[in-house]
Description:
This protein is an alpha/beta fold. The protein has three domains: 6-130, Rossmann fold, CATH 3.40.50; 141-228, Udp-n-acetylmuramoylalanyl-d-glutamate--2,6- Diaminopimelate Ligase, Chain: A, domain 1, CATH 3.40.1390; 231-349, CobE/GbiG C-terminal domain (Nucleotidyltransferase, domain 5, 2-Layer Sandwich), CATH 3.30.420. The chain has 13 helices and 17 strands. The chain has helices at 16-26, 51-61, 71-78, 112-123, 132-135, 141-148, 155-167, 181-185, 243-256, 277-286, 295-299, 309-315, 321-329; strands spanning 9-13, 32-35, 44-46, 64-68, 90-94, 100-105, 126-128, 150-151, 172-176, 192-194, 206-210, 223-228, 231-237, 264-270, 290-293, 333-340, 343-349. The longest helix has 14 residues, at 243-256. This is Cobalt-precorrin 5A hydrolase. It comes from Citrobacter arsenatis.
Amino acid sequence: xxxxxxxxxxxxxxxxxxxxxxxxxxxxxxxxxxxxxxxxxxxxxxxxxxxxxxxxxxxxxxxxxxxxxxxxxxxxxxxxxxxxxxxxxxxxxxxxxxxxxxxxxxxxxxxxxxxxxxxxxxxxxxxxxxxxxxxxxxxxxxxxxxxxxxxxxxxxxxxxxxxxxxxxxxxxxxxxxxxxxxxxxxxxxxxxxxxxxxxxxxxxxxxxxxxxxxxxxxxxxxxxxxxxxxxxxxxxxxxxxxxxxxxxxxxxxxxxxxxxxxxxxxxxxxxxxxxxxxxxxxxxxxxxxxxxxxxxxxxxxxxxxxxxxxxxxxxxxxxxxxxxxxxxxxxxxxxxxxxxxxxxxxxxxxx
Length: 351
């Protein structure tokens, strides 16, 4: 999944007119501008081993690429690299007179549609968007997932099916947990039919459920579960605690709270554990960041939790999992702390 960040946009221009437009854009947003040696100006970077080579290097290292020039040039240069719409960077093309801004690649997942609209707004140009859901003034399942920072089992297949149903005027429902109402209210839901009660469904062809829950009731229509990443886990453990034990205990703690494992957003611990292989492997397996906090930061909140004098003597604070979860969730904890086999796990929810 590729998320466009303004600070990682590479811009390419091949003509004097392109350089003029690039300077105009560079004054409005942070971009790295590339051009040829003969057109080089202050603030620009010269192509290294030619335009094509530089563009292909940028494709692998930037989350968005802007080409000022002909669409065909961008297509020919990038064609061998195009691989996956959920991983490829956003690619946008602008004509040098700034009349059109074309979303060329990764419109939803990479954010090219949003970037094209943003650039067109700055330039007074026409955004050219061709994705079916957008041209039919409808939301898209993949866009909804990215807006919610949510995950889903078999995401690719679900996106293909649900988006096709939306543009085919099928009745696709959208239901969400009450605690996620504020999150969902900011999302694009055009084309979806709002469902308020899973026990009293309107006539539907399919249903998307936005939830942190492990299980849903039996539903009479094809349905998919979209799981926002909101749950954090503070973990304390002995040195060299094996990964299988950590994984099993975390799974049990999530199950005790009836939380889908896909809802996990981050794992946290003390800085002394930053090289703890079991925790590193756990975060990697769950595809979430592993964040650590200093003993001083954790100690500020240890009064909120049962403290151990042995732990305090060993690591500098009397409690690790609770304060770590507190910091990750801004004080919104879930359930009781698990304590077993030298491992402590405290869950929290972060919005």
